[in-house]
Amino acid sequence: MKKKLIFLALVLFIFALGITACSRDDDDTTPARENMTEDETRRADLEGELTVWVRGWDNWGLTGGSPDQPYFEYFREQFPNVVINEVINRDWGPYLPAAIAAGDAPDAFFWEGEPPRVFRNMVDQGFVAPLDSFIDRHPEFRDQFLPGMLEMHRYNGNIYGLPIDVMPNAILLNLDVFDLRNVPHPTVDWTIDEMVELAGRLTNKGDPTSPTVGVVRNIVEQDYVRMLNFFLQAHGVAGYRTEGGNRVSNMAEDQGAITAIQQYIEVQGNNFANTFSHEERVALGLNTDIWNIDWAAGVGAMFVGAGPWGMYINPDTREPLFSQTVMPPPIGPGGRGNYVAIIGMSIFAGSDNQELAWEYLMAMTSRDFRESAWTTNDAGERIYPLRFDETSYRFGWGLPAFSIDESRLTGHFRDWYLGFQAAALHPNVTVMYPPVLLEVTRDVESGTRQLVDALREYDDFINANNLLVGR
């Protein structure tokens, strides 16, 4: 009898445990493992603490480190047992060496720019970890990216970062100006010679009622390489020759480089940058204190923009303020290509949490994150701000690094996306040092130096200081 009572007590105890376990499962908001994806299952098992530097601007800031930040609940779902410590650091470049020296380096950090140039100093100083072994484990993740996107992040044989936002240099067109000047609209197969001709035909600064300019930029003095770069690309300029296994700058001896720079200066000098003086702006009633002044005012026919942020949209109607479209860089005898900037993330080489940091990077740069990352609006409703569709009239800073469902885009949104995506498929391959080369173009334009002589001085300086950047 005593044995029977003990057995019955054990049965009742086990039954009670089962009820308790079932009750916990009912209350648990974590999805049942059988309903989780492979990525979700793997992340659910991760534990630890991660320090991440984030951009802190617009859509890409504050990715869920604390309950008062957007995407906090989403990241809790993805990494339920990981503490993410986020640091807003907009100027990552000068702060990273200081943080490393002080022992406060992040496990993962964002950066911005053209990847080979970004990685040159970081790799040489041992700041950034190669990602190839991580990437090779996840072929489906690797294959999601647009052609060339991961290769852009290769330096000296290794990939050192992943792209979050892609900001391709493209040519934004104000079709109203084309129509005003009775100039036909170009097509995606337009040429570099055609662009130069169009710039001249579209410029009429003397029109007292409707002054127009062929090509405009958003600053008075041209200090970006964006426009110059696709002239060089169109003429097939590599920027170097190989000698004894080393790269040697050879711009002065490359006729393609000479022709490209001459064409660039022709457009730059007549239509570009110094569009109107301050006095002319005041007289014409144009804005004098914001970026993109001539483009925003609708007097510029073509705008060299590095991403969708240059599109001008009425935030209420979601309609363009003037008829706009996007063209990839023009084609030349050497093909086409352009400067493609990236907002990306990398792992600190000295981190003890590289495996965990990789999982974070893979989540942040995945198609699923762009589609599924949610937060709540003021009404407490779940929204998905990172989805790329026609409701996101601003599109953030750039494009996803992978193709999207075009059916969610209609009309001008679809045209813009296709134009920027086409531009993203032709990333920069010219090896050059922009600050010095742009100084050459300014000196030649002003008449203080002859082009070939200036390029010879450029080559000597670059080679003496080992400034060529390779992939």
Describe the SSE topology.
Layout lengths: L1 H26 L10 H7 L3 E7 L17 H7 L3 E7 L3 H10 L6 E6 L1 H10 L7 H5 L2 H5 L10 E2 L2 E2 L2 E13 H6 L11 H10 L11 E4 L9 H9 L5 E4 L2 E4 L5 H17 L6 H7 L8 H4 L3 E7 L17 E4 L12 E8 L6 H11 L2 H6 L2 E2 L5 E2 L27 H14 L9 H13 L4 H15 L6
Parallel strand pairs: 1-2, 1-3, 7-10
Antiparallel strand pairs: 3-12, 4-5, 6-10, 6-11, 6-12, 8-9, 13-14
Helix pairs in contact: 9-11, 10-11, 11-17, 17-18
Quick summary of this structure?
With 471 residues, this protein is an alpha+beta fold. 39% of the residues lie in helices and 15% in strands. The model is unreliable at 1-29 (pLDDT under 50).
Task: Describe what you observe in this structure.
The protein is an alpha+beta fold. It is built from 18 helices and 14 strands. Strands 1, 2, 3, 6, 7, 10, 11 and 12 form an eight-stranded mixed β-sheet that branches. Strand 8 and strand 9 form a beta hairpin. Helix 11 crosses helix 17. The longest helix is centred in the N-terminal third of the chain and has 26 residues.
Notable traits:
single chain, 471 residues, alpha+beta, eight-stranded mixed β-sheet, two-stranded antiparallel sheet, 18 helices, 39% helix, 15% strand, disordered N terminus
**Can you tell me the overall shape?**
globular
State which percent range the strand residues make up.
Answer: 15-25%
Mean pLDDT level = 83
List the uncertain runs: 1-29
Helix residue percentage: 25-40%
Count helical runs.
Answer: 18
How is the main sheet built? 8 strands, mixed
Radius of gyration: 27 Å
> Could you give the count of β-strands?
14
The N- to C-terminal Cα distance equals 82 Å
**Helix- and strand-based class?**
alpha+beta
